Amino acid sequence: MPTFWDEIARPLAEGTLMTLLVFIGGIVIATVLGIGVAALRLSKFSVLRGIAWVHVEFFRGVSVLVLIFWVFFVFPLLGITMSPLTTAWVVIGLNQSAFIAEIVRAGIQAVPRGQIEASIAINLSAWDRFRNIVFPQALPIALPPYANQLVNTLKETAVVSLIGLADLTFRGNELRTHLGHSMEIFVSIGIVYLLLAYLLTQGTSWLERKMRVEPKRGTTPKQAIRLRNFFIGGGIK
Amino acid sequence: MKSSPFTRKTRTAITAAFGTVLLAAGLVSCAPASEPAEDAPVASEPALLTAAKENGIIFGMTDSPPTTLVEADGTPGGYASLVTMEVLGRMGITEFNTLVTDFPSSISGLVSGRSDIRIGGLTPNEERCPVMAFTKPSHVLTYAFAVQPGNPKGLLSLQDLKDTDSKLGTQGATTQETIAIEVFGGDENIVILPDRQSGIDALRTDRVDAFVAPYQTLVQLLETNPGAFEIAEGYVPDLPILAQSSVVTSENADFVELYNKYFDELVEEGWVEEISDEYGFDFDLLSSPELATC
């Protein structure tokens, strides 16, 4: 006789792991690409700005459901065949990169112009300006909307169930088909999504607290500099 | 400083258009140019069979017990899977994989090459036969209604539903949906549901008055949803009996020819009848003159 673990808990646990795998791959691609596209959006070259603009408008405007069907079912007809997991990463990565690019761009553009002008006045190079002046101030501004995007991305992973990838939603539907009990199963997978989202928001809230700019002085926080050093190294030379 | 002949807005539009063209060109260039096969060997067996012997075969299917399902160990299960695996096993194929999608996507999966053969649950009809290669039917579906316990509205046919202005739940892109639209003269009282369990849930929550599905499916649903509904007496008279075949793309018609040969062997041996009985399908209906096949 099948146990509770074998019949219900194990499929849901495996589905949760797949959801996390899709989420992590997707968000890494989205973040890296999003930062790159944001940089292009702020470029002084109009061609690069144009390409970035098209990327953002296209991937922000096209439904992720349509996109995943296209990549999974239509691209093979053009000779491009990706595994279901790669398809999921690429589609979620591209879709979310458009939103993240705008978050990063808005964060960078929110840094007061005077800060940048001052750094130019003291003869900092463009790279030093970015890592010492712009990035540490843009980061706390971009973090809250980025946290929202993380949760959105987590929920968006459910579309991969439509291409046969056995994520949490897919496993839930499978259990419904074989066992019935829709309410119990939907409640269970709802709780798992809620828990994962809660962990994400708690993690990003912690980061936000660490990154918060001191209101009295309006100076760059030490934590932001530490984080900056962690990601891009060094200080002003 | 030399001034540009274009305004800033015009320049932005031009660069955006340029960016679009670049992206499109990049996408197109990703697709390999199709080259004619040179010195292609003369195939002594169907190309699909050769490939499947080497790399295994992928079944495109919906999760729809008792016809098609995936076992806990990942292997295909259910009536249609067993029949197809038995035939393919005799053809020399030993590795079977699955791609589980919803019903409409199973055809897209086949056309795009995501699956090699779409098994179970596809009815040969005038629209499909010219564009796909259907095997001989492995079983026949007869349709019934899932209704509220006691069938308070006395719903036994699509006409009954029309006369009582009742709502019908059905899965989308199916033969039963097409026929229901014809009988109802429109789709106002038809609720499309993503899967069979949703049909029962819709019935339970009074979103539909009847849910139409293959009789064997309803029997299985009754096991997992005891007391939630009852199966209306008799088959739905306005729905035909429907042959269910496996299907491959039309260029693999030679594969189907060979498949049918081995399938006939299994029928002659009595194996198909035996397994039909085991799964509750009426084997005799396979030779019914009412049955439409390609």
Write the CATH architecture name of chain A: Orthogonal Bundle
Sum up the overall morphology of chain A in one term: globular
The CATH topology of chain A is what?
Answer: MetI-like fold
The helix content of chain A, as a percent range, equals over 70%
* Terminal residue distance of chain B: 75 Å
Distance between the termini of chain A: 69 Å
Write out key terms for the chains shown.
heterodimer; A: 237 residues; mainly alpha; MetI-like fold; 78% helix; globular; B: 294 residues; alpha/beta; D-Maltodextrin-Binding Protein, domain 2; six-stranded mixed beta sheet; five-stranded mixed beta sheet; 10 helices; 13 strands; 39% helix; 18% strand
Short description:
The complex is a heterodimer of chains A (237) and B (294). Chain A has 237 residues and is mainly α.
Layout of SSEs?
The complex is a heterodimer of chains A (237) and B (294).
Chain A: H1 4-41, H2 46-61, H3 64-74, H4 84-109, H5 113-121, H6 126-156, H7 168-179, H8 182-211, H9 222-232
Chain B: H1 8-30, H2 47-55, E1 57-61, E2 69-70, E3 76-77, H3 79-91, E4 96-100, H4 103-111, E5 117-122, E6 132-134, E7 139-141, E8 143-147, H5 158-163, E9 168-171, H6 175-184, E10 190-193, H7 196-204, E11 210-214, H8 215-224, E12 230-231, E13 242-249, H9 253-269, H10 271-279
Parallel strand pairs in B: 1-4, 1-5, 9-10, 9-11
Antiparallel strand pairs in B: 2-3, 5-13, 6-13, 7-13, 8-11, 8-12
Helix pairs in contact in B: 3-9
Can you describe this structure?
The complex is a heterodimer of chains A (237) and B (294). Chain A is mostly helical. Chain A has a single domain, classed as MetI-like fold (Orthogonal Bundle), CATH 1.10.3720. Helix content of chain A is 78%, strand content 0%. In chain A, helix 1 runs antiparallel to helix 7, helix 5 (113-121) runs antiparallel to helix 6 (126-156) and helix 7 (168-179) runs antiparallel to helix 8. The mean pLDDT of chain A is 90. Chain B has helices at 8-30, 47-55, 79-91, 103-111, 158-163, 175-184, 196-204, 215-224, 253-269, 271-279, and strands at 57-61, 69-70, 76-77, 96-100, 117-122, 132-134, 139-141, 143-147, 168-171, 190-193, 210-214, 230-231, 242-249. In chain B, 39% of the residues lie in helices and 18% in strands. Chain B has 2 domains: 47-140 and 242-285, 3-Layer(aba) Sandwich (D-Maltodextrin-Binding Protein, domain 2), CATH 3.40.190; 143-231, Periplasmic binding protein-like II (D-Maltodextrin-Binding Protein, domain 2). Classes of the chains: A mainly alpha (237), B alpha/beta (294). The A-B interface holds A 6, 46-47, 49-55, 58, 69, 72-81, 162-164, 170, 173-174, 176-182 and B 11-12, 14-20, 22-23, 30-32, 34, 63-65, 69-70, 72, 98-102, 105, 108-109, 111-114, 195-198, 200-201, 221, 224-225, 228.
